[in-house]
Amino acid sequence: MRTFQRVAVLGFGTMGGGIAQVVAASGRDVVVLETGQERIDLGVAAVRDFLDGGIRRGKATEADRDAVLARITGTTDVADLAGVDLVVEAVTERREVKAELLGRVATVVGEDAVLTTNTSALSVTDLAAALPRPERMAGLHFFNPAPLMAVVEVVRALQTDADVITDLVAFVEDIGKSPVEVKDRPGFLVNRLLMPYLNDVVQEYDDELASAEDIDVAIQLGLGYKLGPLALLDLIGIDVHRHATESAYAATLDPQFAPPPLLAQMVAAGYLGAKSGRGFRVGTEEQGEAR
Amino acid sequence: MTPNQLTVAVLGAGTMGAGIAVVAARAGHRTVLRDVSDEAVHRGLDNAGGFLRKSASLGKLTPEQADAALANLTGSTDLSDVAPADVVVEAVFEDLELKRALFAELDDVVSRDTLFHTNTSTLSVTAIAAGSRHPERVVGTHYCNPAQLMKLVEVAEGRHTASEATKRSLEFLHGVGKTTVITKDRPGFILNRFLIPWENNCIRALEAGLGTVESIDRAVLGALRHPMGPFQLLDVVGLDVHKAVSMRLYEQLREPRFAPPPLVDRMIAAGDLGRKTGRGFYTYDSTRSFGA
To answer: Which end of chain A has fewer surrounding CB within 10 Å, N or C?
Structure first.
């Protein structure tokens, strides 16, 4: 049984930083690979901000924060990954970028190191196929924000060894998350269910079933969801959702994954959701109280 | 006595009708709960009264408020007792002919100004309104179950609904403490339009072996933070009800995503309808309904 005491995270963006924080909080040492020192500094600052928020809300102490930060090291040199026994890749959602990086990392880490990807839109089987010893590759799909979301999907590629899955499931439990074993299908489990629902909402909104606010209010009050679907899309990013559902559509030709045309138009107009200041709900006149 | 006290008639004393009667009576309106049999009326009044008394014992209402609401509430099997109603809320079985016939009959009983509200969840407001000689007074008002606790009402106009009728209906609904959303007269309005394909997709994922009942619920609870997993919710709703709603939407939209997957039929055949039969996707020790 591998317990993965030394972990490498590839990429110090929102997901990479969140994953590094969760792993470090479990007492493990984490080395995060990035392309430049500025990006490492930004990543560390974001983790620090998140932990400071926890201190303000009385959920953690300054000692907790410092201990977590002390276990996270940034590097721009792949050679510093030698000796890690688990790699979690969390770089940009592009196949060539991920495949090239995983290939380089595979030559540095030991033969027995387990390689995982945090992809949500690409095939783990396909990424594994480009590696020597693909049977040690799996998916480890965290949700955003990683420190808060309870579930991690453990994705079994066609090539993945059964004991790799067993060890990853135990690892996910050990870092305080709830593992869900899933097949390597487009969208795995959660996004496989979520994307058709969001596409449905976008199309009906475009077809003027109701205002964006009324759709969200109905879902929040009627079904008790924390966020309405259009506010959720603003948070995910219109471009991110569009890319994910387009990938699922390309892989399945299943019309429920086909991106509604409004998504492409919003991306073209620069309406990407919260991050651009304009989306379905963000930055529109429609915000405000429910009637 | 409240200044804007109206007379409200609720047709159908089932779960939804009794819940809506609580809403109206609690807001200070004279409320008549009408059904076709004494037994149904008594059961509805018992449920409504029980809820109001429990609300008082839980401190949600003062004893005076509960007494006043109870005093506002009467029952009847006689349609002529609906005559003084300012607002009629139809909450009978989800059957188009039944609803149309009821509105046709009511035309001769109530005044021209009486508003007709239909609590349909999946039928066309326009089609129901066509039962009345005055479809301009008919408004779709879809309450959520349990109506006495859930704030949301989906409001939909039929093709001939007068905007004045909608305006008065919104005032009435806000007056009884509801939050309204405006939607089109399309199958499933907002909630069921999105919930039904979602639930059916979750069932198909289970059929396809993408997860287990437990792992799919856990994934949805943990990753999307819904208040209930899809299978927990289906057990509460009832597999028979889910199938009926799915089929009515499928018949209108003719889209396969609304059709109930085969597992639903298997579960119904086996008598595994959910909480109410003690077994659905999960097994249960007790059956419970109309909780406070």
So the answer is: N
The domain that holds A62 is classified in CATH as 3.40.50.720
Domains contained in chain A, number: 2
Q: Is residue A202 part of a domain?
A: yes
| CATH number of the domain to which A256 belongs | 1.10.1040.10
Q: Would residue B283 count as lying in a domain? A: no
Asked if the structure places residue B240 within a domain, the reply is yes
With CA atoms as reference, the chain B residue closest to A141 would be B223
- A17 and A72 co-located in one domain: yes
What's the rounded Cα separation, in Å, for the pair B166 and B136? 9
Examine residue A268 and state whether it is found in any structural domain, yes or no. Answer: yes
Does A219 sit within 8 Å of B144, measured CB to CB? no
Reported ipTM: 0.94
B237: contact with A, CB 8 A cutoff: no
Q: Do residues A205 and A170 both lie within one domain?
A: no
Nearest to A197 among B144, B186, B194 (CB): B194
| Nearest residue to A242 (alpha-carbon basis) of A215, A210, A202, A209 | A202
Residue A211 has pLDDT above 50, yes or no: yes
Query: Is residue B167 less than 8 Å (CB to CB) from chain A?
Result: no
**Cα torsion at B134, B171, A219, A252 (round to 10°)?**
40
Local confidence band at B288 (pLDDT 50, 70, 90 cut-offs): low
B-chain residues within 8 Å CB-CB of A289?
Answer: none
CATH number at residue B158: 3.40.50.720
Q: What is the mean pLDDT of chain A?
A: 95
Q: Is B201's CB within 8 Å of A193's CB?
A: yes
d(Cα B13, Cα B90) in Å, to the nearest integer?
Answer: 10
pLDDT value at position B287? 59
Mean pLDDT of A55-66: 94
Task: Give the whole-angstrom CA distance, residue A116 versus residue A99.
Answer: 12
Q: Which of B155, B167, B180, B215 to mutate to test the interface with A (most CBs of A within 10 A)?
A: B215
In a 10 Å sphere around its CB, with 0-12 CB exposed, 13-18 middle and 19+ buried, how is residue A269 labelled?
A: exposed
Q: What is the CA radius of gyration of chain A?
A: 20
Residue ending a domain, among A142, A166, A183, is A183
Chain B residues within an 8 Å CB radius of A194:
224
Q: Does B253 touch chain A (CB under 8 A)?
A: no
What pLDDT shows up at residue A284?
87
CA distance A76 to chain B (A): 32
CB contact under 8 A, A291 and B194: no
- Do B179 and A229 count as a contact with CB atoms less than 8 A apart? no
Considering the domain boundaries, does residue A147 fall inside one?
A: yes
Residue range(s) defining the domain that contains residue B129? 7-183
Task: Assign A290 a pLDDT band (cuts: 50, 70, 90).
Answer: very low
How many domains is chain B built from? Answer: 2
Residue B126 pLDDT grade (very low, low, confident, very high; cuts 50, 70, 90): very high
pLDDT of B2 > 70? The answer is no
Give the H or E element holding residue B33.
Answer: strand B30-34
Asked whether B180 and B151 are in contact (CB, 8 A), the reply is no
pLDDT top residue among B78 and A110: B78
User: Among partner residues B182, B219, B226, which is closest to A225 by beta-carbon distance?
Assistant: B226
Least confident of A84-88, B27-31, B257-261, B287-291: B287-291
Global pTM reads 0.92
Residue of chain A whose alpha carbon sits nearest to that of B181: A214
